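Case study.
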Amino acid sequence: MALSGVEIFKHLPKTNCKKCGHPTCLAFAMKLAAKQASLDACPDASDDAKKILGESAAPPIRDITLGVGDKAVKVGGEICMFRHEKKFFNPNVFAVAIKASEAGDVAAKKIEAVKTSEIDRVGQKLRVDAIAVTDEGGDAAKFAAVVKQVVDGVPGVPLILVSKNPATIEAGIALCADKRPLIYAATAENAEAMAKIAKEKKASLAVFADGLDALTALSEKVKALGVEDLVLDSGARKAKDMIEHFTIMRRAAIKKNFKPLGYPIITFATRDNSVSEAVTAAIGTMKYASIIILNNVEKWKMLALLSLRQNIYTDPQVPMQVAQNVYKVGDAKDNSPLLITTNFSLSYFIVRGEVENSKVPSWLAVMDNEGLSVLTAWAAGKFTASKIAQFITESGADKNVSHKELIIPGYVAVLSGALEEKLPGWKITVGPREANQLPTFLKARA
Amino acid sequence: MALVIPKETYSGKIYNVQLGSGAKAVTIGGASALPFLGFEGTFPNRPAVALEVMDIAPDDWPETLKKAIGSAGSNPVQWAKFCQQSGADMVALRLMGTHPDQKNKSPEEAAKIAAEVAAAIDIPLMILGSGHAEKDTQVLQAAAAATRGKNCAIGKAVEENYKTVAAAAMANDHKLIAMSQLDVNLAKQLNILLTQMGFDKERIIMDPMSSALGYGLEYTYSVMERIRLAALLQNDPMMQTPIVCDIGANVWKVKETMASDAEMPEWGGLEDRALAWESVTASAMITAGADMLIMRHPGAAAKAKEVISELMG
Ligand code: B12
Ligand code: SF4
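After joint prediction, the assembly is written out as follows.
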């Protein structure tokens, strides 16, 4: 249970030494209760205090890390039901399933797809996060062969080992024991054996049971067997069951602090039709699934799913933004064109990408509008002629170029007259409305 | 520890709004809980999927989309019939040709097309202006009169023109689509203004303003979630109108639905990508509580209907 500020205060040194950056221990305790500070900031906290407060500060949904190294991914650790309440913190993992029967060519193709899956979207690098090797025929040797193929092919990518047979898991994990894989899954039949492997190999363990009651019981049992890093599967596969089960699990954990369900959720969104798979996986992303397994990871599908995930996991209070600056695109010289946009990440990266596509070296002046898009900033009175004029002169954008011509976004064409008044001697050119017309526009001028 | 299912107690409910008449009439709304939480509420009506038709040829629509519509696009009546055959629950006629920057068609011309389209289909009709607030008042008035008795949804009423557009819907017994700009309070405010002028709140469909996947979708998503919470948990009667999401128009103008395979090899094939873009956008809006969707690609609409079936159980 979360402790109140006063309860937390009881465990602090009460010296008011201010080393934590707060005037008193009580003030610091209040911040801790509001989850706006971390106990690490108090150097004098006793080990006892750390233990008690650490437990109370633990998020209602445990966070779990899959894999090791720079491709390791953290899931869980969420604290709210709706993103507008605070934000969703740890983006769900998308994993592609490779069946033991696909050893060889098919596996190689999927491994290659994972290897080349990285895309750059709005300044973030996004990719297929993990690979789930699934045992369907019960042949441990084939299973191990695919695990080997994956470990050799994409060494850093976190693994999920999917089999209900402990012997098969043993065969697979022997090849990746130091890589913190996820074992899927402990069931009512094999829980002891799976827990034993997970403990020995320090792997995290998925718990599968059909339905929430059975899952609750099994989750408690596995925890009692000594495994802490669990993820849960209630067997929900149809969209309706996914939304219902995952909502109940998240609510029980967050609102009732119901520990047996306070773990990340794993689900299989696999479908024969690939677009159907995309729309189902989308529901998992929005509604609380932390690990979503797919049959196929075509580039077009991942672009849609990773974009959705990026949308859902952005901070609703602060739009993604870039620093105000005059960015040099390509080998821009003093006679290169000068364009202006706002500092909303989406606007900046789209425009920058298209300027790069044009191969016309340019200067891109990015004005701080608190992360609003061009039209939104304009409608909010933050992208006005006088503010732009002030920015152009104060930022030194005018020093980078020997000419006096500024290209403005087509959607704010109305600003051109007023801007020419505010920037005497400048020529204001109205660019195209959509950024994808920029290459044609810039090439035609070059 | 046994699991006690943590249930919300909802005091509010979404209004039922019927569109069209006869065997193919569509009713939307009616939800008594957050979307698809069958363990704590009922969902008497499935979200409806409308396919969009224009009064002009879709010349500036992306190739993938034009191909999917084929020759039907050259004539609004044929196009509407094509949508009906493709399995749409409704047709959304957008009178784009009336926009001063387009063909600047007269309200009379628009009304004639609206009447012809209404006569050609037996599924319900939605009539949308071109988005030019001033011109829309005349266009929608004429179109509403020409389709009197068809129980259409007319829109969009916005802050600048809601009085005239609502009057046109009221005088001709239609339902009204009221659009505000991605803001819970603005959405509520517009519904209040409409009821203050005597428009029945149970005849309003709220458009919180849509955006496409990757281009502000999260704003629409969260505004919708907040509207639903206010409607159901706080029992706010001004938030209990069903929600429509106009997604096709947003989806089919972003680069992801247009750039060729050669231009963006790292994005995968255009056909699948574009279809997935509209389908996933639809999936997100349905999950957030959309009662009605306006879409453009028949294939994506079919996928939306598939998700809806899975969600309704
Ligand atoms: C998401 C959104 C919001 C979000 C903010 C998102 C953000 N971080 O900016 C929120 C909900 C906060 C919001 C608020 C408002 N919004 Co708003 N919003 C949108 C929406 C749906 C998408 C905006 C977006 O992200 N676009 C994507 C980015 C990439 O577009 P962009 O910056 O314009 O860039 C494109 C082009 O301009 C071009 N480009 C960009 N830079 C450059 C540079 C050059 C040189 C060139 C050539 C081209 C170019 O390339 C890009 C891609 O083609 C649009 C409607 C829509 N579908 O477009 C309305 C929209 C922009 N909003 C609008 C309005 C009116 C508002 C509000 C005033 C309403 C309100 N609720 O009070 C407020 C103002 C905010 C405030 N007071 O702080 C109106 C503006 C109307 C107008 N024409 O003036 C719009 C157009 C909606 C509408 N149709 O009415 N909004
Ligand atoms: S650092 Fe620790 S002891 Fe010092 S004021 Fe802060 S909480 Fe109190």
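Observations recorded in class. The pocket of iron/sulfur cluster (ligand 2) is lined by residues A 12-13, 15-20, 22, 25, 28, 42, 44 (CB under 6 Å). Chain A touches chain B through 54 residues (CB under 8 Å). We will return to this complex in the next lecture.
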